[in-house]
Each structure stands twice: as C-alpha cells, then as structure tokens.
Design brief:
Length: 434
C-alpha cells in the first residue's frame, strides 16, 4: 500500500503544505466536459501506478497519473515520453526519476553562485527527493513549455546533505515513489519563490531547499526564481493561469478511473468558471475548514503559522485530526503492512466539514465517508481496485484538513495560480473553486 504524498515546499511568501473491495463502476461526470476543444486537455487516470502489473509490484491507491513528453530545449526529436507522473495540485514543478530519462542529456541550471543547482524536496513523513535541476521542453497533451527548470531525481545516493535526508527515506526509485515522477501543478509558479531568491531579503538560504555541491559536500544556496523548479503550466504560451481536475464520481471502489487535467481557467470554451462554482481566496495558500467543532486555519498570516487546510490531488486520502477521538485507527501490523496512519472504523461512517474563505463569507459544507482502510486494502490485493472514495487517515499534530483525491471524485476542482491573470471578473489568484 501507499501512504499519502503530501509535499512540504517553500512557496511564495512562506511554507506551503505543499491503498480495496469488489470492483464497482464509476458513474456520473465531473461536470463541464471538454466539448469540441481538446488542445488544452491532458488525459489522467487512477490506474494503480507503474508497478501495479509488475510481479513484485503494488497498487498505488488513489494515485492520479499523467504522461509528459520531455525534450532537450530546442529539439523535437531528442525526447523521452514518461508515463505515470503523479498529478499533484499540492506542489509545484516537474520531478522525474533519472532512470526514466535514459540517455536524454539536459542542460544544467545554476544557482545564484554560478554552480549547478540541486533541489531537495521533503515529505511530511520524513521521506525526500534529491537531484539536480536541469532545463527541458515539456509537453503535456498539446501544450508545450520551453526551457522549464525541472528536477531529476538522482539515482545515486552519494553526497546527499544531512539537512536534506534528515534520517528519512530517499524515494528515488519507481518502487519507493510509486510513480515515475511528480507533476506539480499547484497554486504557485515556482517551488520556493522569494524565500530562495537572492533578492528575497534572507541573510542565508533556507534548507532543505536548494544546494550547490563541491568536493567538500553540498551546502544551501540561493536560486533566482527564474531558475527554480517551475510549474510548467505558467510557461505555456496560453492557458497558463491555472488548471481544472475533472474526475467522475466513484461509487465505493473502482479498478480504474479516467479523467482530464484541463489547462487554463476562463481562457477557452471548455474551461470557463461556472457561476455556480464556489471560489475560495486564500491565506498562505490555505483556507479554513471546520470539522467536529474545530476550525483549522492560519493563525499568524505574517509567517504562515497555524493548521491551514488545503485541497491536494497528490494526497491519496482525506487526512484530518480525529478531534473527538472517536474513529479507530488501523493496526500497525497487518497482512498489507503498517496502516496506522489510516482510519479503520468498524463500518463505513458519514461525516461532514465546512470549508470557508478566510477573507470573506464564502463557505460550503461537504459530506464525505470514511471506510475501514484495512478492509479496503486487503480486498484490493485480489480485486485490483485502485480508486477509493472513502479512504481517510490521520493528520500530524499541528496540521490542518487535507482534502485529498477522494474530494476530487465527482466534481471539477479549479486551482488558480498565484500571479497569473485570473478569468474576467474573478478574484486575484491564488484561489480554489469547485
């Protein structure tokens, strides 16, 4: 089984936060539809991930995947196509396993001191990704971004600084990551922003973030925003102000789910923001969620502290604190591994929580279900189900409500990117809408 992927990245002004049962068919629609225009549409699927069909592989539960073509800048033939990139609206930038790039040679991207930049991405569970920053032309569907800084996830484990590894697990293989890379198409244009830029006002670069390396080891380094790992969407010539994730409703469990990642909001006939959509402007890339009488929100906007809540397709479940200590967690030792970060109620339970815009009165109450994860995962080993509408788990202390992939089933979720031109009449980005 796979635990959730919740990437902790430096974004904008502060920290952003950045496995079942009989197979049931998917029903309904995420709404909208692509109409006659498909140029800005990328097919996505929940299909168990790249190792699901391998003899010793495993199913990535609620992992949403897409394919990208990656080329040397200026070339249309020196390219590789990489499938099973995890679509993550909770992080920013493309990160690809070095093993998936083969012999493709890509030019290096330098830090502010003129040496090659290396990037470290830390996960909440202590895992991390490490590797050099290079430039590539990236094509997603029919949309192309040129000379995009991306991270190659290094195969080698040599010279990784301790401030990056921090005793955690290096997710540098297909089996460990459960994907061939991560496609971060979240709310920010770059993965660190002003905090890592030499003009950002800090006296020392933050860590873990960017590094440069010498024979004596690797040390934190400033990297200009233009050279930071970049959300490829913002570098499209058009349709570059956000994304829409469209997935159908899942009734219980399903072996596969097919949907669309649509580029742009209000830029084409197929990506208009409907008047019925609830738009949530944000503080520190989060909004407020009230669950069981407790509100999870940013308490100090000046430094982005507090348990803000967020929408994240890269998290494979709904993750939230058990405020009333009323939902049993799963055992540590089960036939399918350590499930202690998931909920295991004796039977499926129905819950609700209310999301609210921290800047105005917009709010929306969402009902959701949580089922016994041990049963789901155990049954999945024989049914090959990969999509679960009622997968829920615990949140670390001090974290907010994480609306992971089950939230996306049956609705269109809009993510407007910070600094990009919003649709006519809409609020300045960043915001979410659904």
């Amino acid at each position: 089984m796979r635990k959730f992927v919740e990437v902790l990245l430096l974004g904008g002004l502060g920290f952003s936060l950045a496995c079942g049962g009989s197979s049931h068919s998917t029903t309904g629609s995420g709404g909208g539809g692509t109409g006659g225009n498909t140029a800005n549409v990328l097919a996505v699927a929940v299909d168990g991930g790249p190792t699901a069909t391998q003899p010793s592989g495993s199913i990535y539960e609620n992992g949403l995947f897409a394919t990208a073509t990656i080329c040397a800048p200026g070339s249309t033939s020196n390219c590789v196509t990489v499938d099973h990139l995890l679509v993550d609206t909770g992080s920013y930038g493309l990160r690809v396993l070095q093993s998936e790039l083969g012999s493709l040679a890509l030019p290096t991207v330098n830090a502010a001191n003129g040496s090659q930049a290396y990037d470290c991405v830390s996960f909440v569970d202590g895992a991390f990704l490490w590797g050099p920053v290079v430039a590539a032309t990236v094509t997603l569907g029919s949309e192309t971004a040129t000379s995009v800084p991306i991270q190659t996830i290094a195969t080698s484990t040599a010279n990784i600084p301790t401030s990056c590894s921090n005793g955690g697990s290096n997710q540098n293989t297909q089996q460990l990551l459960g994907a061939n890379g991560i496609l971060g198409v979240g709310l920010e244009p770059t993965d660190c922003g002003g905090a890592c830029d030499p003009s950002g006002g800090l006296t020392a670069p933050p860590s873990p973030a960017y590094y440069t390396c010498a024979s004596s080891g690797c040390t934190p380094a400033f990297v200009a925003q233009a050279n930071q790992v970049t959300n490829p969407v913002v570098m499209f010539p058009t349709d570059n102000n956000g994304v829409i994730v469209e997935l159908p409703t899942v009734s219980g469990e399903a072996a596969t789910v097919n949907g669309s990642l649509i580029f742009g909001i209000g830029t084409e006939s197929n990506n208009k923001l409907p008047g019925s959509a609830k738009v949530f402007t944000l503080v520190c890339d989060t909004f407020n969620t009230t669950y069981a009488g407790q509100t999870f929100s940013i308490t100090n906007p000046s430094n982005c502290t507090g348990p803000g809540s967020f929408i994240d397709s890269g998290s494979n479940g709904l993750y939230f604190p058990d405020v009333n200590n009323s939902i049993p967690t799963c055992p540590t030792n089960t036939p399918v591994g350590d499930l202690s970060s998931f909920y295991c109620p004796s039977s499926q339970i129905s819950l609700s929580a209310t999301n609210a815009d921290p800047n105005n009165g917009t709010s929306e109450t969402t009902s959701f279900n949580v089922d016994n994860a041990e049963n789901l995962f155990t049954n999945s080993s024989t049914s090959s189900d990969a999509a679960f509408a009622a997968l829920g788990g615990t949140q670390p202390s001090g974290a907010g409500f994480d609306w992971g992939l089950p939230f996306f089933y049956g609705r269109n979720v809009y993510s407007a990117i910070d600094g990009q031109t919003p649709p006519s009449g809409a609020a300045a980005a960043p915001w979410w809408a659904y």
